[in-house]
Amino acid sequence: MDVKQFMIEFNKHKNQALVKRCFHEDENCNKIIKAHSIQNNKILSKISENGEVLMFSSEPDVDNFISTSLRPQGRKKATTFTGFCGYHDAIFTPIEESDYVIGNREQEFLYAYRACTKEHHSKLSSTFMMKNLQNLVINGQYNDFSSHFDKNKPSPEHIDFMSDMFESHLFGANDAVERGEKHIKWFNNWLDNSEFENIISEVIELDTEHHLAVTSTILIERDLVGNQINNLDDWTIPLAPLFLTVFPQNGKTYIILSYFTRNKRRYKFLSEQILSKSVDEQKNIISNIIISYAENTAFSPILWRQFNRETQRKIEEMFFDTINDFDKPLVWDKSLNLFI
Fold first, then answer.
1. Helix (H) or strand (E) holding 322
2. Beta-ladder partners of 69
3. 214: CB partners within 8 A, 6+ apart
4. Residue 92 forms part of a structural domain
5. How many other C-beta atoms are found inside a 10 Å radius of the C-beta of residue 33?
6. Which DSSP string corresponds to 289-308?
7. 28-62 pLDDT per residue, tens
8. Alpha carbon of 197 to those of 90, 158, 189, 243, 307: distances in Å?
9. Phi and psi at residue 81, in whole multiples of 5°?
10. Distance (Å, rounded) from C-alpha 252 to C-alpha 233?
11. Which of 75, 198, 243, 263 could form a disulfide with 112 if both were Cys (CB 3.0 to 4.6 A apart)?
12. Does the CA dihedral 100-105-108-114 come out positive or negative?
């Protein structure tokens, strides 16, 4: 298989399925824009070098295998998603134009809301792409599915394999989309009624600016001692998402861990097992969480060069090995520290 051609066609299908929708849809909606999930002017401009940040990306390597590594992206494009119209992007003015203040419930709510919408947009777009590809197989449009089939029609066994693969993927994906829609409705209702107390945030404040930024929704599976937080094998049990935001500001770095108030019993371990630790231990735990769970992470090229090549390779391999793994421990590497 020509991996480069595969990636070209994959990205084509991905772009065709990209959702363009305002997640706070009402009578005031106007044109959908490319909204930043991490603030461009306040955060990305701070951590960028020559207008670029580094983000994880999968591309063919020299051996024609797909590899994941940190690659440069222009900060004006990085972390954008088509999940809001121009009118409703102004919802985030309190965090775009004002510095974050620990304990500001509205700001912490908005950081969590942004993380939730960014994740739902990704899940929704991925599901649409899989449905589109499934329909191409069902309708026998194999050439549109892949140029690999221009000369050779897939065998009946290959067709069955592709059909089963899409069916299996969509089973979980459709459920994730339904849950995401429910969470978006909750957020919108609370936002419209200023009920910010429905989100609880635990905050770690580091006394140095570390040039990386995260906006991500994650499903932690186990706490530090192995107690289950989310069971990803049983879809009948409600999930408890954690909304992770990390950014530098005014000589400090803020790590905001937000969750639904209804899930406070599940997340009591944050204060008991993380906030109670030393600063170095907190850095290690959060570093592991970022690499294991948070795809929407931007690194400063300057920060990245501070790691030696061995550490860089370890970080990239850990991201690749853990991002789709299940039932993983909260800490994989007790020496990992992104906050240097």
1. helix 309-322
2. 57
3. 38, 244, 245, 246, 247, 290, 294, 296, 297, 298
4. no
5. 18
6. HHHHH--SEEE-HHHHHTS-
7. 999 999 999 999 989 999 999 999 999 998 765 54
8. 21, 52, 12, 15, 40
9. -155, 150
10. 39
11. 243
12. negative
Structural domain of 283: 200-322
Number of separate domains in the chain: 1
223 neighbors 327 (Cβ within 8 angstroms): no
Question: How far apart are alpha carbons 121 and 138 in whole angstroms?
Answer: 26
Contact call for residues 206 and 253 (beta carbons, < 8 A): yes
Residue 237 lies in a domain: yes
Residue 129 resides in a domain: no
Cα–Cα distances in angstroms (integers) from residue 70 to residues 37, 104, 253, 303, 314, in the given order: 18, 33, 21, 12, 12
Please give, one letter per residue, the 3-state secondary structure of 113-172: HHHHHHHHHHHHHHHHHHHHHHHHHHCCCHHHHCHHHCCCCCCHHHHHHHHHHHHHHHHH
According to the 3-state scheme, what is the secondary structure of 229-292? CCCCCCCCCCCCCEEEEEEEECCEEEEEEEEEHHHCCCCCHHHHHHHCCCHHHHHHHHHHHHHH
The separation between the first and the last C-alpha atoms of the chain, rounded to the nearest angstrom, is 41
Residue 130: what residue type?
Answer: M
pLDDT of residue 66: 65
Question: Is 188 within a domain?
Answer: no
* pLDDT given at position 2: 58
